[in-house]
Write a structure and sequence with these properties.
This protein has 143 residues and is mainly alpha-helical. It has one domain. The chain contains 4 helices and 2 strands, in the order H-H-H-E-H-E. Strands 1-2 form a two-stranded parallel ribbon. Helix 1 crosses helix 2. The protein starts with 16 loop residues before the first helix and ends in a 7-residue tail after the last strand.
Amino acid sequence: MTVSPLPSRSTDFIVTKEYRRFAEFCDACRDNRYIGLCYGAPGVGKTVSAREYAHWGDLDQLLGPPPYRYSGVPAPDSGPWRTVLYTPGVINTPRTVAREVDGLWAAVIGAAVRATWYVTEHPTGVRPPAPDLVIVGTRSAGL
């Protein structure tokens, strides 16, 4: 099984009217604490938009592939990561989903803490903000 590479943020992604609508939708979900549902035909760009919105290409490279995520040290100008993209397995239980989201959340917070190691005037005891939006994607049967 091979997965085709997704576009990188700097060169291949084109911000379209639909992406701007998706970002506005995500911002509303975050600001108003909504649970939103984005649906549509396969291949229209929902997952690519979610990856772009969450800056997931950068963060996924830093964290590594699931489930054995490693913890790299991010660049000093990276973060803060406010959105987590989670794609559950096709077959799962609520307990599995909760455990995986908690682990992913902890890995993102750990990366944010390590990003502050470079800051010389960082007050002690102050933690970077935790992510406040989880985007849950679907996994097609072909993946």
